[in-house]
Design goal:
single chain, alpha/beta, six-stranded mixed sheet, 19 helices, globular
Length: 528
Amino acid sequence: MQRLSQRVLLLSGWRRALVALLAGAFTTLTLAPFHLFFVGFLTIPVLVWLLDGAVGSAEAGRYARLRPSFFVGWWFGFGYFVAGLWWISNALLVEAPEFAWAIPLAVLGLPALLAFFYAFATAAARTLWSDGLARIFVLAAFFGVAEWLRSFLFTGFPWNAIGYGILPTPLMMQSVAMTGVDAINMLAVLLFALPAGFVASRFSAALSAFLIVALLGTQVGFGYWRLNIEPDAENESQVLRLVQPAIDQSQKWQPEQARQIFDDLLALSAAPGVDDNVDRPTVIIWPETAVPFILTREPSAVGAIAEMLQVGQTLIAGAVREEGEDEAEDAGNLYYNSILVIDSEGIITGAADKVHLVPFGEYLPYAEQLSALGLKAVAAADRGYVGATQRRSLALPGGISAIPLICYEAIFAGEVSPIEATDGLLINVTNDAWYGNTPGPYQHFHQSRLRTVELGMPMARAANNGVSSIIDAKGRIVKQLEYEQAGAIDAQLPVKIALPVGKQYSNHIFWLIFLLFATTGLLARLRR
């Protein structure tokens, strides 16, 4: 390993950039659907050694000296995000004649922009760089800040946060409940980078090995304790049915297919109980924008839903909600990506609109200027969506309220506040059919599972195609429908558990760990 570290350290020019690119790309193997978390122990040390050799000219100015480390981080990030997000291009192929031209922007342009967050992390870490293990703590600290910034700047896009690589299973996911997601990003980089300490002194190697065992042991031990300390429980009065129609995205909004799609949803919802061990469902959940037309314009469709529902049943349907009096789509009406609650009499008793819209997917930033160039949002047809100003809970039978997370809202750790987390259920409706059977739907599903651990709340996740699942409050799958598996599943609603400490004090924990790690680096730097 000593020889390898020296060879990496001495790389320069395009060779250094290529190794950084490959190290970032292979790091994505720690994420869903692969979950090869041990790969991080191979790739992140390479990043450390590259930064050891990224020394600017002594005659250069302060910022110019950071340029080599900045580009090491950028190439690492570029490889990480290209390998982890290439599947976004699948959405552009659904309507290829209109959007295929943007594939290079999705595959290369977006990763190039996201890579600047990691470039910031490595350049900032280099300002406190030193010999020994202290530099690893500094790198972890600034990677944590970079991921924190990525979660909210420019509306935020925390997809595939680097810390998710050490959270592959429920046993290892429980650490999120102890620290929060932002702190996990720092701890993950620290853990993955520690093998870089094996090539220094014997003391450094021994301390690195001890820290790896201590961190992994604490993570696994806490996970085992938390999974077993509280007995599994179910809410016997509530049975959920999730419907996954598995509709091809290219057919979903074709007018001639609308009636058949709607009839299929009704048939799956009204089918006899799919599990003899549970009662008939009290709540039926359809995926995001499942209704293939504006429901309020079709009284017969609302009547068909009422006829399908039995007394006491409630339908939660993903649908486009319209505000305005004119049915002409160009007449100034507003459209929301919404969830509608419909009772057995066909009355819409509640609605919740999506708050966090996808830029360029559901709305067009700088719409007036970009529309003049002929651009439009990919997933919003010609009308575009409007975001809600606040999140609304949904009232369910039995006095239970649910927090709706529509599509990629589930990837944001801060989307649900501790105050909102008093509700009994998370409902995530999504349509991952846009991305085909690629890593994308599985990454989305894994990040959604982490919200249950973070909040101590069960989740009902209904996807048009993707992974539909009922998940308990500790991230364990109760029942599931796989990708391209059309059907329905029934299960009793798992119970909510106490709000985890990590959610209540996540900001404090994050900044406390950052301060500890950064101080470690600063003291080592001053001593040097």
